[in-house]
Amino acid sequence: MPKPISAMKKHGVRGSESGRAIMALLDLLGRRWTLRIIWELRERALTSRALRSACDEASPTVLQARLSELRQAGLVELLPASGYRLTQIGKELLETFLPLHRFAERWSKGNRID
Amino acid sequence: MPKPISAMKKHGVRGSESGRAIMALLDLLGRRWTLRIIWELRERALTSRALRSACDEASPTVLQARLSELRQAGLVELLPASGYRLTQIGKELLETFLPLHRFAERWSKGNRID
DNA sequence: TCCTGTGCTACAATAAGCGTAGCAGGCATG
DNA sequence: CATGCCTGCTACGCTTATTGTAGCACAGGA
């Protein structure tokens, strides 16, 4: 880790001090459940509890933490009516790695997971 | 986390028991330094120490762990001569989120990181 | 009021990550 | 052989992140 989180300004993103946006983004996405959350929100808004179910009953502690970070980053927003959903730029992010889905299939075929 | 890591067969990938390749992939990529490592290997092979420098002097413990996982997943290989580099399918993975670079720039402009 | 669902949080325990230091092996040079 | 330097890799003690369980306050509907 570039810097201890506790040394950052509240809500900062590790790697951002490098001035390289890609580092900050990779760091943000490289935290547990972040990618998964974005993935689960790919086609519909979800309430926090529905999201938790979708994420295999992950701990609400981390989920809330990730949701805060994602909202802070402007990638996810909370609508009182329908729950959490991707923002416009959040959807753009999703689209950049939608091909990942097809890749995953190809990859798992040549890769003995268990 | 779907299951405690210690409950998995050695070298398994969390999420793989769901039968959904994308989950296993998202989980693999959603560990610290994994995305960054792939990124740093995008255009050249690196020795473990060079990779460590590139990754802002990250702890060798985690780096080695990630490299093992990535090799296990067939995305990275170690060449005695030149060091670590992406495999063919590893490069394909990289290409699926190369657009991330451009996205990161766009994203950071509308996002006050610090 | 009572029930249900929402977003969210406390808290203790476990697991992951970190930083320092150092290992064995290969391979050149003296 | 001895010395030095580089490689991949690991031990270990400490800090941080994540987990799991439980529960909060609030809002709406019956």
Could you explain the architecture of this structure?
Chain A is mainly alpha-helical and 114 residues long. Chain A contains 6 helices and 2 strands. Chain A has helices at 21-29, 34-40, 48-54, 60-72, 88-96, 99-109, and strands at residues 76-79, 83-86. The first copy, chain A, is globular. At the A-B interface, helix 1, helix 2, helix 5 and helix 6 of A face helix 1, helix 2, helix 5 and helix 6 of B. The structure holds a DNA duplex (30 and 30 nucleotides).
Strand content of chain A: 5-15%
Looking at the chains present, what oligomeric state does this protein adopt? homodimer
Shape of chain A: globular
List SSEs of chain A in N-to-C order.
HHHHEEHH
The largest contact between protein chains, plus residue counts on each side, is: A-B, 48 and 48 residues
Please compute the radius of gyration of chain A using only Cα atoms: 15 Å
Structural class of chain A: mainly alpha
